[in-house]
Amino acid sequence: MNNQQKLVDAFCEALGVAPDMVTDDLTYNTIKEWDSTAHMILIAELENTFDVMLDTDDIIDMSSVGKAKSILSKYDIGF
Amino acid sequence: MITIKQQQKDFYITGYSVHLRPVVYSDLEQLREWRNSAFVSKQMLDSQYISAEQQAAWFMKVSRDDSQYHWIVEYQGHCIGSTNIKARHVGERVHTAKELEPGLYIGDPDYQGNILAFAPTLAMYDFCFNELQTQSFHAVVKATNQAAIKYNQQLGYEIVSQQKLLELSLQKEAYERQTVMLKRLLSRTRQS
């Protein structure tokens, strides 16, 4: 499974949304499934999936799927 | 975990990635701009437009009023909003009141609806519960303001009265129990 697929799976698992909803411009707090509680679950899911520990600024900055990819890239996760 | 610096009657609070400093006169125009914005004003119980004169009068009043305290919220050196506490009962001082009413708005559009919006509240509540020995918080929100209701419930608030306005109450134990994960996420340090 490539990193893009892992990322989509992590979002689906954390937010409870279908894979086709996980596009780069899907944004935090614009759908009811991605609220602050789901955001915390998402952070844990991404950290477990990619074996990283995000810092607070990255957690705050992770406002969309596209942003999640660029943040994970800083941790040497390629997409 | 927060750090508190006191200068005379002023408190400066740092924690959860934000810094709270007392509102000063030069902040008034920025605060007024935010307070009059559609995003902020629609959440307020009083959403009337605020003039520069009203804002200045408000500042003169609160500067001499020890029943309330107002901070500017800074993140990464930039002002992003404002938070405050007020004694719930007339005649009480904010530093000794057992019950406080909180207020918060995030004025910077980049952080509205962001998880960062919890940070100033966590810092302020830690300060109140642990330093001022506040016993509980009491919040009043419009029953239509689902975002504020969810936000408060995330902090441990429970609904105590439900009409056109919703009244919520927060005890320290519920706050500590409910905010463990939020606090962990908002107090991590940069790895590199």
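qc> Helices of chain A lie at 3-15, 36-50, 56-61, 65-74.
qc> done
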